[in-house]
Write a structure and sequence with these properties.
By secondary structure, this protein is of the alpha+beta class. It is 28% helix and 41% strand. Strand 1 (16-22) and strand 2 form a beta hairpin. The longest helix is centred in the last third of the chain and has 11 residues, at 99-109. The chain is globular, with a radius of gyration of 14 Å. It starts with a helix and ends with a strand. This is PPOX class probable F420-dependent enzyme. Residues 12-92 form the Pyridoxamine 5'-phosphate oxidase N-terminal domain. GO terms for molecular function: coenzyme F420 binding; oxidoreductase activity, acting on the CH-CH group of donors.
């Protein structure tokens, strides 16, 4: 499986994936997000991306910028492991100037749509949401 195969698998379940991060004590924190594949906003390389907010996941990723993301459909599954970069109001990423447009791009790459983009932008800003980019080091499946 490659990254585009992973994206196709995730799309079968509306882009829903499980993101695993390491807590400070080394234990694993997992959560479900919508993820998609798009070109990295600086390098142009295809990466896996999702939008998130809150202290747990972002704190874990800031401390240890590595994750495993798993998608499944039926009994088929695939995992992307890789290094992480974060772009958001609390995590400036050199080369990224328009965070609201970037969050929209990641959201739509993950299969999302919205009837009111101004409302979307306001929610993203209020929640201090960030885009997370996973550069694949390993992609594997059953």
């Amino acid at each position: 499986m490659d990254l585009l195969g992973f994206h196709a698998l995730a799309a079968e379940e509306h882009g829903l994936v499980v993101v695993a991060t390491a807590r400070a004590d080394g234990s694993i924190q997992s959560s479900v997000v919508n993820a998609g594949v798009l070109p990295h906003p600086v390098t142009g390389q295809d990466v896996l991306a999702f939008v998130t907010y809150g202290r747990a996941k972002l704190g874990n990723l800031r401390r240890r910028p590595w994750t495993a993301v798993t998608a499944r459909s039926g009994w088929r599954w695939g995992t992307v492991e890789g290094s992480v970069e974060i772009a958001g109001p609390d995590d400036p990423l050199p080369g990224v100037d328009d965070v609201p447009a970037l969050l929209r791009a990641v959201f739509t790459a993950a299969g999302g749509s919205h009837d009111d983009w101004d409302e979307f932008d306001a929610t993203m800003a209020r929640d201090r949401r960030a885009a997370v980019f996973v550069t694949p080091a390993r992609v594997y499946s059953n």
